[in-house]
Amino acid sequence: MNELEEAVNPVKPPPLMPGLKVAVLGAGKMGGILLQGFLKNHLLSADQVVATVQHADRAMALSAQFGMTVTTGNLEAAGWADVVLLGVKPVQVPALIAEIQPALTPAKVVLSFAASVTTASIEQAAGCDLAVIRAMPNTPAMISAGVTALCAGRFASAQQMAVAQRIFSTVGRTVVVDEKHMDAVTGLSGSGPAFLYIVIEALAEAGVNVGLPRDVATLLAAQTTLGSARMVLETGYHPALLKDQVTTPAGCTVDGILELEEGGLRVTLIKAVKRATARAKELAGEKK
Ligand SMILES: NC(=O)c1ccc[n+]([C@@H]2O[C@H](COP(=O)([O-])OP(=O)(O)OC[C@H]3O[C@@H](n4cnc5c(N)ncnc54)[C@H](OP(=O)(O)O)[C@@H]3O)[C@@H](O)[C@H]2O)c1
User: d(Cα 116, Cα 189) in Å, to the nearest integer?
Assistant: First the structure.
């Protein structure tokens, strides 16, 4: 292939996990984001992935959009795959496990990213010593800037956890936690993007209020949020210390901080994460 042909038809790099067969059962918002991340980042090639959804018309549309097999056949997909990702709503998990149960053997790994659903409940429904790993990703996975917390069920080996971490590290950072923390993770980093979009939206609105054009205000608000987050991650300094660097005595920032404290931003964010965590504990137990 010459340079011109290569520019028109770039050679796809080989998949980073060749030979691994992955099924995503429930390729909705989160499942679709993960699937696209796996393909875009060359973790897997399109023939190594199968996805399912509930509605046949959506399966056809997604198949064309993603350039891969998308069906409504959960049992067949689970039987084919080595790693089975569960991406349906928490209340839909028990019915899905019952449907794919004949395909579940100790040779497979089930990787559930449904909020609230415990590894023990999946193991019990599977009826065999099934390797179950629970994950909580978030939507910035779309741009490989997500964070996923993972925990192992009773029968998942360290090697299977390493595979799960490798899969999710394609779309951002990973962290391994004890399962007792998974609902808290859901309330913080699972729901967190929505909380922070509101903060960014409010900062942009404030910029407009003090006279900035909306596009400039949104850029300033979003890049400031990104830069501040990177400062916390990359310097390792406590956020309070970084805040103090911005806060000149008798300057303008400290006046702004006074307004934030009076308005209860800090307490409101703490309460938001606490409420989302409490709600995450309820989801799996709800009736369909
Ligand atoms: N959204 C997030 O930010 C986020 C973050 C972390 C974890 N999660 C978890 O991800 C899961 C899905 O959430 P979501 O926001 O992506 O919801 P969603 O967009 O509604 O996705 C659910 C998907 O499941 C499919 N589905 C339903 N029943 C099915 C069945 N029996 N067999 C196969 N597919 C079936 C639906 O198919 P149709 O499209 O045909 O209806 C839909 O595509 C939840 O458990 C949630 O806790 C979500």
Answer: 14
Pocket of ligand 1 (CB under 6 A): 25-31, 52-55, 58, 74, 87-90, 92, 96, 113-115, 136-139, 190
Which residues have a Cβ under 8 Å from the Cβ of 142 and sit 6 or more positions away?
33, 36, 37, 171
Ordered domains of the chain (ranges, CATH): 3-182 (3.40.50.720), 192-283 (1.10.3730.10)
pTM of this structure: 0.94
User: Which residue's CA is the nearest one to ligand 1's atom 18?
Assistant: 28
Dist CA 149 CA 189 (whole Å): 9
Over residues 92-112, the mean pLDDT reads 96
Tokens 């996805």 — which residue? Answer: 51
- Closest Cα to atom 30 of ligand 1: 54
* CA atoms of 117 and 12, how far apart (whole Å): 37
Closest C-alpha residue for ligand 1 atom 9: 114
Rounded to the nearest whole angstrom, what is the distance from the C-alpha of residue 158 to the centroid of ligand 1?
A: 28
**Phi-psi label, residue 201: left if phi above 0, alpha if psi -120 to 50, beta otherwise:** alpha
CA distances from 137 to 5, 191, 263 (A): 38, 10, 31
pLDDT reading at 4 higher than 70: no
Q: What is the mean pLDDT of residues 104-128?
A: 96
Residues in the chain: 288
Say how many Å lie between the CA of residue 139 and the centre of ligand 1.
Answer: 13
Ligand 1 pocket test: which of 25, 30, 69 has the largest number of ligand atoms within 8 Å of its C-beta? 30
Gyration radius from the chain CA atoms: 22
